[in-house]
Design brief:
heterodimer; A: alpha+beta; OB fold (Dihydrolipoamide Acetyltransferase, E2P); Chloramphenicol Acetyltransferase; 3 domains; 6-stranded mixed beta sheet; 4-stranded antiparallel beta sheet; 9 helices; elongated; B: mainly alpha; 4 helices; globular
Chain lengths: 414, 82
């Protein structure tokens, strides 16, 4: 039997709220199947399983806040399921706090055990500054449930509103004396401003961690894009509008091929350097309301430029709608950001931990260019590398940028 | 198809591609991409949708001529007629 645990969808994620189970006990699942939707600071994410098997028990309930690493469900092998198949209609078990794992460092651990309360109820009570011992529980054996805490909050709404406690970043709420605090976990649909705020906080957490912990070094090179742009214009002229390519796919593919040559930058730094076999490039998508999403393009190096274009056409709208899958948020092995459309020439990026490198592309601008003793004008792109000096050195970064430059001189081979 | 009908269709398309923008407030000479913050991916989707809706084919070299609502409306009106 395996336990499916709340995945970490980035260095900045501490927990997620279960929004919906897509499976029930007894359902057969295959690797890659979506089993649930969770709400995080980065929107509602579909989470996938990484094993084949049969769902045993669902261990958390809808609307429960689940810390990263907490068991969410059991997954049985076919043999186990044949011997012990739960009734298909079985509901998630009632929450029993004495058995439920509490998040590390949570004050719930210090609460007396004789007060029976669900982890979610404890958290809400803690956030709202309500003494859980004063709440009458209506759950099994008098356990205090989320609803009980919400009733207590509603009863105290007027006096509590004036001294609103600091809210969890994932559920920012506007609290004014005229507007009592609404119960947590009833925030569907989430207001756009709250979503933007929560994404901002997620980006802030990840970037602060990076700046605090990662010793960055930066390299930059200028790339003559005349061959790449000529090839693009030519191929796009022969394609129907639906199949046209954008320069970004050439840049992404060149990075993927360069990583095959210099694998030291396709890695995570987690208790030391961990080289990654697969190349999953995270592509930065800017949200118009502020903030960014960085979905992974899985196995970037094995995709053709046409497949990369299709992948981006799928990922970018879903990233903007905050509808990404867990693997798309969690798997990136390096990040590529292209800010050229805004008109900047050079990007000095901040690495997204635990990755060890970020490639930044500026805009393509016409610039004086000398070659073979001749001065001419060429479309020029500035590519930068921000890399983690714990994981690599300048000579490695230099080989990598040079490889990108070389691949972009042979666009037909990308 | 009148210019006004084309404009309404453009606004609808922009709204469906970039739901968090207000294309209805675009002035005739506003640069569509810059004003709404639409990147090249969204813009390509927009062109694909327009080509399908109006039964036209917009070559890449024409992108530079269709940056404002006025330019785009005129461009489509001329092609739909012809």
């Amino acid at each position: 039997m395996l336990e499916y645990k709340m995945p970490s969808l980035g260095a900045d994620m501490a927990s997620g709220s279960l929004r919906e189970w897509r499976v029930k006990p007894g359902d057969r699942i295959k690797k890659g199947d979506i089993i649930a939707e969770i709400e995080t600071q980065k929107g509602i994410i579909e989470i996938e399983v990484f094993e084949d098997g049969v769902i045993g028990e669902l261990l958390v309930k809808v609307d429960e806040l689940v810390p990263v690493g907490t068991s969410m469900a059991t997954i049985l092998t076919e043999e186990e399921a044949a011997g012990k198949r739960p009734a298909p209609a079985e509901a998630p078990r009632e929450e029993k706090p004495a058995e439920a794992p509490a998040p590390a460092g949570s004050t719930t651990e210090t609460l007396p055990h004789h007060i029976r309360a669900s982890p979610l109820a404890r958290r809400i009570a803690e956030e709202k500054g309500i003494d859980i011992a004063t709440i009458q529980g209506t759950g099994p054996e008098g356990a205090i449930l989320r609803e009980d805490v919400e009733h207590a909050i509603a009863a105290q709404a007027a006096p509590a509103a004036g001294k609103a406690a600091v809210e969890h970043a994932a559920v920012p709420e506007e609290v004014t004396p005229e507007k009592p605090a609404p119960p947590v976990a009833e925030e569907k649909p989430i207001p756009a401003a709250a979503t933007a705020q929560s994404i901002r906080m997620a980006v802030a957490a990840a970037m602060s961690k990076s700046n605090r912990e990662v010793p960055h070094y930066y390299l930059e090179t200028k790339i003559d894009m005349s061959k790449a742009l000529a090839w693009l214009a030519d191929t796009n002229g022969q394609r129907p509008v639906k199949e046209r390519l954008l320069p970004a796919v050439l840049l992404i593919k060149a990075v993927a091929k360069a990583l095959n040559d210099v694998p030291a930058l396709n890695a995570w730094w987690e208790n030391g350097l961990q080289l990654k076999e697969s190349i999953h490039i995270g592509y930065v998508v800017a949200l118009r309301t502020g903030g960014i999403m960085v979905p992974a393009i899985h196995d970037t190096d094995t995709k053709s430029v046409e497949e990369l274009m299709l992948a981006l056409n799928d990922l970018i709208p879903r990233a903007r709608a905050l509808r990404l899958r867990s693997s798309e948020l969690a798997d990136s092995t390096i990040t590529v950001t292209s800010l050229g459309e805004g008109g900047v020439e050079t990007v000095y990026g901040v690495i997204y931990p635990p990755q060890v490198a970020l490639v930044g592309f500026g805009g393509i601008t016409e610039q004086p260019w000398s070659e073979n003793g001749m001065l001419t004008v060429r479309p020029v792109l500035t590519a930068t590398l921000a890399a983690d000096h714990r994981a690599s050195d300048g000579s490695t970064g230099s080989r990598f940028l040079t490889a990108i430059k070389n691949y972009l001189q042979q666009p037909e081979k990308l | 198809m009148t210019q006004e009908e084309i404009k309404q269709a453009l606004v609808q398309r922009l709204k469906s591609i970039a739901p968090d923008t207000e294309p209805g407030q675009l002035q005739p000479d506003d640069n569509i991409r810059q004003t709404l913050g639409i990147d090249s991916f969204d813009y390509l989707q927009f062109i694909v949708a327009l080509d399908e809706q109006f039964g036209i084919e917009t070559p890449e070299e024409d992108y530079g001529r269709i940056q404002t609502m006025r330019e785009l409306t005129d461009y489509i009106a001329a092609r739909v007629k012809s």
